[in-house]
Every structure is written in structure tokens, then in C-alpha cells.
């Protein structure tokens, strides 16, 4: 069968031979060295068989001078297919165009992806890339190599410390690392330090400027603590009045301040504790209607703390009016507590201290507290507290140079 | 000379175990079940029809009868016959 292999690729023809003892014609063929296969006698004077396409001319030559009549029945194989295909002009043209189109489309940039940098630098990079001619829709082969682009980008965008340019097919991937530019601190203009609160000065640390108050002085809000005006004129000649030197006063003035705080603490309190037992239920919801999906059974516990999370379903980028959600049911225990008066007072003091600390910030230190007045009214303890605090009271006030 | 030549051939087959079909120019017939007959070393087609195939060899004819015969392949000295084979007969000249 080796001889007939590949004949469908080179093409073969089925011929019908008519005449007396037509098989002898095939005998003649093989005598000439041709390959003949699938020979079948269909009638007494008819015989059909396959021959190779390039043997057809030879067969015609053999037929000459004999009384056999040959007709061609079937044409099979790639050459015939190809000829039939070529005859359909529009198919050929469309195939050609589609190949061209694929070639064209695979040679332009489809996407430039920038990652690793904030939005504004991304914008800058893409603008810079635009100026190099790298943007979706430009020809790939007209571009420089990724390495060159990389170098150019780093030179042209000063915010970039490094950028990696990678081309994968029709997509450019850029990964940037931002330079962190540390700005020098602005030089403050000439200024004074003044008090914000009334208090007694406890500690002074002045790094710049002339202190105007001393330790243990009582100051009111707005009082000058450190002056930014340095007068040199005292030391030098008093005749020529020099302009005073202006500096930005800086320092830390810690003073003792006091606060009066009123707190009320109930003697009875109830609070909830979660036991840790929980159950999840899932549902879909459209508007107010909820369709449970999972978790139908009621939980065994009675006191329930419910927590519901819902999220809109999405179809591609559009949000659907359907929501998917879950409800977490947690078991809770209500506990009641009765406090004694002493406990309530202690709780009130702690509460007052915490609130004050929140108000004043972490630097303030509470030195002492004193209960000025306490009263029990309607199951609540009312406290009037006096608190001593050490804190920084300095505030910056710029000196107007009056020009 | 020719006589020696003809005498030496059987001797070669017998003692050197050389294939007889090559040396004597006889046809080699391979039959696969009832469906295929493969004949090598024949000397041409004598008759062929749907139920009979007659091939010439150097000593007479080989006649194969059966039904629905198709010559699967025809080469100068080989033939592959497909169909339902009934008998293979050697017909002297």
C-alpha cells in the first residue's frame, strides 16, 4: 500500500475503461510501471480503477491505438481541492485580507500598562510615552528597544527612580519605582511663642528666641512666652538705632493647668457578651424581598445579635438590582451589673481622665485628680472633679514686620 | 552451462536455505484468511472479473475464484486482491 500513500496529496483520478476485457488495459498500465489501485469490474465490458494524477497523460498515450474508451469519473486529492478553491475568487480574497489584517493587528500596540506608581506619575509616564510614539495604535516595529525606552524614561521623568519596560506581544508592561523626594523643611518666618491656656509654668526649654517669662510664673492665654525679637542695640552703641534681629522663636513651655470636669455614672448597668456560638445564613435579595439560599434552620440560641453584609451582584461592569448577602447570627448574653458607690466613683474618675487625655493629646500628663463634690441622684453618681495637668501651652504667633 | 545452472539451484535451496521463490522465479502467494490474497512474482494478468482472477506465472496460471473481487493494488509484479476467496488453483499450461 506504500505506493498509494500520499496519492490524496498529489491527486488521483478514477478512470472507467470500456471495451472487451478492459482489465487488460490495466495490465498494460502496470506493464509501463504505473501504479493502479482499487480496480473493480463493474460489468462485462467495464472496469474502473484509480491512477495517479501525473500518470494521466501517460494513460492517454497508452490508450491511443487501442479500442478502449476511457472516461474520468472522480477527481480527488489536494490539487483538485486547491483548484476548486482558487476558482472561488471572493474566498481567496477574504482569506488574503484576513491574513493581512492579522499581520497588521499583531504589529500594533494594543495596550500600555503602567503599574507600581501613583496616578499622577502614571499620567506623566504615559504622556512621555506618547511623545516617544508609544501608545495604543502605534506600530511596534517603529519603536526603539525596551532598554532604550527605559533609559529615556528615567531621564525624562525625574520622579522615577527606575522603570522596567517589558514587551509581551502587543502589550507593553511598565513597572515603575517612584523616587521619594524629601522636601527641605520650610524656614519659618519670624515669630513669637504665646500661651494658649492659663497656667503656672513648670518647665521651659527655649531653643530660639528670648524668654519673657520664668518658671513658676502665672500666665494667661495670649501672654508672650518667648519673643522672636532680639535687640542687639543694648550692647552696642545706643546712637545708631539698628533694626532688631528677628528670629523664629522655638521651644517647649510646659505648664501646669487645671480642669473641672462633671461626670455621671449609673450604679446599674447592663451589657451584652457574645458567647462565640454563631451561625451563617446566605440569601439573595431584590429590593425588600429576601430569598434564603443556605442556612434555613433556626439557631438553638435565643438571644441573637445579627450582622448582615450585602453586596450587589455584577454583570460585567453593570450592577444588578440583585444583592447577595450573608447574615451572621451570634449568640449573646445580657449581663447586669450592680456597682457600689466606691466602684462607681472610681469608674467616673477613670472615665474623666480618659476623656481629658483624648482631648489634650498624648503629650499631656495628668498629675493629680480630686473629687470636689459627689452626689447620688436617681441611681446615678454625679461627680465634680478637679484635675491637674502638665502640658505644652506654647503657640506660634508670627511677627508682622509692618511694611 | 545452463544445465549446471539449473542443477545448482535446488542444491542452494536445500543446503543454504535460500528462499525458493527468488531462486526459482516462482510466485509467492500470501493469503490472509478469506479476504486477502497477495501474489508476488507473477507475470501478468490473464483474466479478471468480479469472481475470478487468473494470473500468468512462469509455469502455467494461478486461478483464484470467489466473489466481489477488487484489485486493491496493481504493481508490475505484485497484485493485492481483496474479496471473498473460495479457492486458489494452479492450472498447468
Give structural notes.
The complex is a heterodimer of chains A (403) and B (93). Chain A is elongated, with a radius of gyration of 49 Å. With 403 residues, chain A is of the alpha+beta class. Chain A contains 8 helices and 22 strands. In chain A, the strands form 6 sheets. A 5-stranded antiparallel β-sheet of chain A has the order 11-9-15-21-20. By secondary structure, chain B is of the alpha+beta class. Chain B has a single domain (26-91), classed as Immunoglobulin-like, CATH 2.60.40.2000. A 6-stranded antiparallel β-sheet of chain B has the order 1-2-6-5-4-3, with no helix packed on it. In chain B, a hairpin with a 3-residue loop joins strand 1 (28-32) and strand 2. The chains are: A alpha+beta (403), B alpha+beta (93). Chain A binds chain B through residues 1, 3-4, 21, 23-24, 26-27, 29-31, 33, 35-41, 44, 47, 49, and chain B through 44-45, 47-50, 69-76, 80. Strand 2 of chain A pairs antiparallel with strand 5 (61-75) of chain B, so a sheet runs across the interface. Chain B: This is Sporulation protein YqfC. Chain B: InterPro entries: Spore_YabP/YqfC (IPR022476), Spore_YqfC (IPR022477).
List keywords for this structure.
heterodimer, A: 403 residues, alpha+beta, Alpha-Beta Plaits, Ubiquitin-like (UB roll), 5-stranded antiparallel β-sheet, B: 93 residues, Immunoglobulin-like, 6-stranded antiparallel β-sheet, 2 helices, 6 strands
Amino acid at each position: 500500500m506504500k505506493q498509494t500513500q500520499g496519492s490524496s496529496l498529489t491527486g488521483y483520478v478514477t478512470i472507467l475503461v470500456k471495451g472487451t476485457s478492459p482489465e487488460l488495459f490495466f495490465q498494460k498500465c502496470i506493464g509501463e510501471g504505473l501504479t493502479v489501485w482499487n480496480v473493480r469490474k463493474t460489468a462485462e465490458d467495464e472496469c474502473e480503477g484509480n491512477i495517479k494524477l501525473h500518470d494521466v497523460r501517460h494513460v492517454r498515450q497508452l490508450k491511443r491505438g487501442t479500442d478502449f474508451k476511457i472516461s474520468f469519473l472522480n477527481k480527488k486529492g489536494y490539487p483538485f481541492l486547491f483548484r476548486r478553491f482558487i476558482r472561488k475568487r471572493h474566498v481567496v480574497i477574504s482569506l488574503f485580507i484576513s491574513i493581512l489584517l492579522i499581520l497588521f493587528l499583531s504589529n500594533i500596540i494594543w495596550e500600555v500598562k503602567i503599574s507600581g506608581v501613583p496616578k499622577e506619575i502614571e499620567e506623566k509616564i504615559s504622556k512621555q510615552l506618547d511623545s516617544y510614539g508609544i501608545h495604543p495604535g502605534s506600530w511596534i516595529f517603529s519603536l526603539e528597544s525596551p532598554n532604550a525606552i527605559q533609559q529615556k524614561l528615567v531621564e525624562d521623568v525625574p520622579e522615577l527612580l527606575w522603570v522596567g519596560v517589558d514587551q509581551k506581544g502587543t502589550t507593553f508592561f511598565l513597572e515603575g519605582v517612584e523616587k521619594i523626594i524629601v522636601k527641605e523643611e520650610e524656614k519659618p518666618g519670624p515669630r513669637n511663642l504665646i500661651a494658649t491656656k492659663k497656667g503656672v509654668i513648670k518647665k521651659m526649654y527655649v531653643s530660639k528666641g528670648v524668654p519673657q517669662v520664668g518658671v513658676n510664673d502665672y500666665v494667661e492665654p495670649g501672654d508672650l512666652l518667648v519673643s522672636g525679637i532680639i535687640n542687639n542695640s543694648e550692647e552696642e552703641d545706643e546712637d545708631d538705632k539698628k533694626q532688631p534681629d528677628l528670629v523664629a522663636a522655638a521651644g517647649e513651655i510646659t505648664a501646669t493647668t487645671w480642669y473641672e470636669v462633671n461626670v455621671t455614672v449609673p450604679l446599674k448597668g447592663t451589657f451584652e457578651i457574645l458567647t462565640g456560638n454563631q451561625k451563617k445564613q446566605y440569601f439573595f435579595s431584590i429590593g425588600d424581598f429576601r430569598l434564603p439560599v443556605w442556612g434555613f434552620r433556626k439557631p438553638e440560641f435565643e438571644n441573637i445579635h445579627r450582622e448582615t453584609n450585602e453586596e450587589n451582584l455584577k454583570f460585567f461592569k453593570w450592577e444588578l438590582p440583585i444583592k447577595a448577602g450573608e447574615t451572621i447570627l451570634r449568640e449573646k448574653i445580657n449581663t447586669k451589673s450592680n456597682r457600689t458607690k466606691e466602684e462607681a466613683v472610681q469608674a467616673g474618675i477613670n472615665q474623666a481622665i480618659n476623656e481629658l487625655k483624648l482631648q489634650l493629646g498624648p503629650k499631656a500628663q495628668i498629675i493629680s485628680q480630686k473629687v470636689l463634690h459627689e452626689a447620688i441622684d436617681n441611681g446615678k453618681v454625679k461627680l465634680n472633679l478637679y484635675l491637674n495637668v502638665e502640658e505644652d501651652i506654647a503657640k506660634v504667633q508670627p511677627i508682622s514686620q509692618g511694611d | 552451462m545452463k544445465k549446471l545452472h539449473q542443477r545448482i539451484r535446488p542444491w542452494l535451496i536445500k543446503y543454504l536455505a535460500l528462499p525458493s521463490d527468488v531462486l526459482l522465479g516462482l510466485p509467492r502467494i500470501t493469503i490472509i484468511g478469506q479476504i486477502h490474497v497477495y501474489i508476488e512474482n507473477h507475470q501478468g494478468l490473464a483474466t479478471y472479473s468480479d469472481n475470478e482472477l487468473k494470473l500468468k506465472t512462469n509455469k502455467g496460471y494461478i486461478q483464484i475464484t470467489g466473489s466481489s473481487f477488487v484489485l486493491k493494488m496493481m504493481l508490475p509484479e505484485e497484485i493485492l486482491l481483496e474479496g471473498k476467496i473460495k479457492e486458489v488453483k494452479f492450472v498447468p499450461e
